[in-house]
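R.M. (postdoc): so does anyone remember the format we settled on? I'll just put the structure tokens first.
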């Protein structure tokens, strides 16, 4: 079973405007609200790919029904540890004129040490060596940056594979614990290793260094520029496809879903990479964090050109 862990879920409020006017009244063209947060988005795309997962993590009690009802409507199993407080709302400003998305991500609820410990104990009782765990997203107040590293060590103790998608110090500390796989974007990678994010050779070298440390799969995404996949045996590159963009929010999560699906199903590095790119590309063609459909993912998969490096 795949478990996605979201410690800081979010409602994504997408506001479409023509052009942001600082200090003025801005009027929206349209708005939408989606259930989001990185691990939850991964579970949404896994469902489309036809694979079950359990969405776990920590959820604020106050507006929890918005999340739980939505996941139930998609037939995605959820098993969150509930804490008091409200799940954050993250604002995504889509500017039509400039074709940009600006994220304003809130902090979220506060988690006490005791609550976190209860969640970890419960979560560890759920998983065994047959499972794959996706740890992703930012941390609510009260949880230290060491959490992903700590969880990776505990999960490795149970022979559970982990895919990590985090940033800043939680990524640095997570990588020190050597997860099975990671999916940084180039900016997250730059926070980890000194790279020139415009130079493919520099990105590949960073990927190889991480593989030499013991991480088995390193998928580095670079938005429209595409992605690089470095494993012990292969190095692949693919350019991003030119597609109509609705919202880039959740592209990385969709990519992680493709990666998790491929790893869970024993696909080759080549197939994993193609599927991950297809999921990310299909996602940018949907509004907000709406899930891409499977037919589009299949169609894009057939168009992706992967170059071995
Ligand atoms: N503007 C875009 N055009 C085409 N594909 C995109 C675009 N943005 C993202 N993608 C696809 O989604 C993948 C993940 O996007 P990226 O923005 O790098 O992730 P993250 O959301 O983690 O920052 C990219 O590698 C690419 O395949
Ligand atoms: O936990 P963070 O880092 O604040 O990110 C949460 C945000 O990331 C998202 O999961 C989208 O992530 P990506 O665009 O990186 O795939 C949104 O749904 C959510 O608002």
């Amino acid at each position: 079973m795949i478990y996605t862990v979201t410690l800081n879920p979010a409602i994504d409020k997408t506001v479409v405007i023509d052009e942001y006017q600082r200090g003025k009244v801005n009027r929206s063209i349209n708005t939408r609200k989606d259930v989001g947060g990185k691990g939850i988005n991964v579970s949404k795309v896994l469902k489309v790919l036809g694979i079950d997962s359990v969405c776990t993590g920590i959820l604020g009690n106050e507006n929890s029904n918005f999340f739980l009802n939505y996941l139930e409507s998609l037939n995605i199993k959820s098993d969150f540890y509930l804490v008091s407080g409200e799940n954050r709302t993250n604002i995504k400003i889509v500017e039509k004129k400039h074709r940009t998305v600006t994220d304003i991500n809130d902090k979220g609820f506060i988690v006490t040490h005791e609550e976190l410990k209860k969640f970890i104990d419960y979560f560890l009782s759920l998983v065994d060596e047959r499972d794959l765990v996706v740890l992703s997203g930012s941390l609510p107040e009260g949880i230290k940056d060491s959490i992903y590293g700590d969880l990776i060590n505990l999960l490795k103790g149970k022979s559970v594979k982990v895919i990590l998608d985090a940033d800043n110090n939680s990524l640095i500390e997570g990588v020190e614990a050597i997860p099975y796989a990671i999916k940084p974007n180039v900016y997250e990678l730059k926070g980890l290793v000194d790279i020139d994010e415009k130079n493919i050779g520099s990105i590949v070298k960073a990927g190889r260094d991480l593989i030499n440390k013991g991480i088995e799969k390193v998928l580095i995404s670079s938005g429209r520029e595409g992605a690089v996949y470095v494993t012990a045996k292969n190095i692949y590159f693919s350019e991003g496809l030119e597609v109509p963009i609705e919202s880039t929010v959740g592209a990385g999560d969709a990519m992680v879903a493709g990666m998790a699906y491929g790893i869970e199903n024993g696909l080759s590095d080549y197939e994993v990479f193609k599927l991950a790119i297809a999921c990310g590309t299909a996602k940018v063609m949907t509004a907000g964090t709406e899930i891409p459909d499977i037919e589009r993912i299949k169609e894009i998969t057939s168009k992706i050109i992967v170059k071995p490096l």
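R.M.: ...and that's the designed sequence above, right after the tokens. Also worth knowing: The chain has a mean pLDDT of 96. Residues 185, 221-224, 226-227, 240-241, 243, 245, 248, 251-252, 255, 277, 280-281, 284 surround adenosine-5'-diphosphate (ligand 1) (CB under 6 Å).
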